[in-house]
Amino acid sequence: MPAMKRKLNARNEPETSDSLSSPAQPAQKAADPSPKSATPTFSTFGLDGRLLRAVRSQHWSDPTLVQVRAIPLALEGKDILARSGTGTGKTAAYLLPILHNVLRRTGNRETSSLILVPTKELALQVTKVAQSLAAFCDVRVQNLASKESEVVQRAKLADLPQIVVATPARAAANMNNGALSLKSLAHLVVDEGDLVMGYGFKEDLDYISQNIPKGVQIFLMSATLNTDVDAVKGLFCRDPVLLDLGALEKDSQQVKQYVIKCAEEEKFLLAYALFKLDLIKGKTIVFVGDVDRSYRVKLFLEQFGIKACVLNAELPLTSRLHIVEEFNKNIYNILIASDDTEILGTEKKSDESRPRKKAKTDDGRPDFGISRGIDFRNVSCILNFDMPSSRKAYAHRIGRTARAGKSGTAISLVIPKDKFKKHKPTSFLGCENDEKVLEKIEKHQTEGSGLEDYKFDMKRLEPFRYRFADALRAVTRIAVREARVKEIRMELAKSQKLSRYFEEHPDELAHLRHDQTLNHPARIQAHLKHVPDYLLPGGKKSQDIGFVSLNKPKPRRFVQRKGKKVVRGKNGKIDPLKTFNARGRGKK
């Protein structure tokens, strides 16, 4: 009897009646699309045409991995718990399904979507993306995370926006006073779930979870999966679809990681050499330990004509975001930032109904910094001028490069234990445990990635040491303090909120403007910008470095005047002694 032929599936495996009738099979296919299928596009998701038009206006070619996996599940109405790295498109992965469902509920003028984020910066970023995707739709999006009065926020919510973006503290406060109603809520998003819980929003999340209606679709997005994410999951989700895409994204996000072990003062020397000799190409974020340190590095680099900007935690939120925009627009190619709690704009006590607890890392130290939440574009290199305090902070730092499938480089300057506190002017207390942090980072490296020795020959930098020492002496502690104060005063003078006050008190504005006209806090030495050929390795001249001396002697010019040879001196006048000849002045 001939053998019975069985039908094969897309994976060339025989199908059985049980597998065909299994109710879990469609969900499995949605979560794990067959590799045989063609590369999906945004149009294959069945999204509203107005959203597809907005996607085209954003110049997004193909959906990212998290979007391919999450959007079909979200359109089916499933709860999603997704882990995906920074810059992988998590925001659009939940915004597109939410906007699609909002457009399907025509005539509904109630708040149907609430997006919770940990910081003001991330709230503004999510709001901008939502507004750009809703550019061709009649969908209202409101941001409640900014520091505004209760009356202003109540007026915003009175317009009945379909999508509200807020921190948990702001959302809970507006729910408590009756300004925000969640009776028609259909979608709840907790973005950066580990940070939301880690920043001490647990009580606010408890209050929100107790007051949302049943059947709300939950999106829980995070760059990591840890106990904080599990706590948020327990509050909102019962049986979500887990998308752990961190390991799959390693292939598309290649970060070459290098380590340079050096002395404390050699950090500045290496930074000078890396930038001045064009050893670092493209846009770079330099991470330092604190704000003072960031201004010290900035003033040091300015001695050599290297332009950089500082993301100062002391400046207002709008100023910080403006700095990020200038960096993204290539006005600055070097951005110096510190891992301070204030950088991210964590909620102040005036914005809270109760005090907050700081997030802790696995080392028991705060896990903060600009490395989470802020959108930096086309960053090619991360320079860890000062090492972070934990391996998790290191991972978030280097996550600013190699985004959206691009490659990147991370260079870390590490202080060995025997060289710590050997140079008082450049010593930084946060570098005491650099080697311990490095060991933890190396221990948790995934397969195919690792930290390599940069193999930088420090002996070749010996000719630069006299210039480095001269520039470092100019960056004093007083100069750093004056630079910080000067920038704050300039922001006050440009503040729109204080414009009315300065109209009534012109003398105060005059004082601020007088401070702006002061000399540069650190004395700029013009000769340091020039790198002579004999100092360069191999005698080769670096690119994009030009120099024209102000005292360069003019060549002698021989001017023929009425048949006579005339020699002019340096000042351009005729030199009579060199113009005479043996025959005298001659006939006229």
Automatic annotation (TrEMBL):
Its primary localisation, in coarse terms, equals: nucleus
The Swiss-Prot or TrEMBL record annotates one GO molecular function as:
hydrolase activity
Q: Does the keyword Nucleotide-binding apply?
A: yes
Q: Where is the composition biased (Basic residues)?
A: 558-571
Pfam families recorded for this chain? Answer: DEAD, Helicase_C
Q: Which residues lie within the region annotated Disordered?
A: 1-42, 346-366, 558-588
DEAD-box RNA helicase Q domain sequence ranges: 40-68
GO annotation terms (biological process): gene expression; ribosome biogenesis
Catalysed reactions listed for this entry: ATP + H2O = ADP + phosphate + H(+)
Under the heading InterPro entries, the entry gives:
DEAD/DEAH_box_helicase_dom, DEAD_box_RNA_helicase, Helicase_ATP-bd, Helicase_C-like, P-loop_NTPase, RNA_helicase_DEAD_Q_motif
Q: Which residues form the Helicase ATP-binding domain?
A: 71-243
Q: Where is this motif: Q motif?
A: 40-68
Q: Which SMART domains match?
A: DEXDc (SM00487), HELICc (SM00490)
Q: Where is the Helicase C-terminal domain?
A: 254-462
Among CDD domains, the record links this protein to: DEADc_DDX56, SF2_C_DEAD
- Enzyme Commission (EC) number: 3.6.4.13
UniProt subcellular location: Nucleus
Query: Does this entry carry the keyword Calcium?
Result: no
Q: Name one GO cellular component term.
A: nucleus
Q: List UniProt keywords, sorted A-Z.
A: ATP-binding, Helicase, Hydrolase, Nucleotide-binding, Nucleus, Ribosome biogenesis, RNA-binding
Function, as annotated, reads: ATP-binding RNA helicase involved in the biogenesis of 60S ribosomal subunits and is required for the normal formation of 25S and 5.8S rRNAs.
Q: Which family does it belong to?
A: Belongs to the DEAD box helicase family. DDX56/DBP9 subfamily.
Q: What is this protein called?
A: RNA helicase
Q: In the record, what lineage is assigned to the organism producing the protein? A: Eukaryota, Fungi, Dikarya, Ascomycota, Pezizomycotina
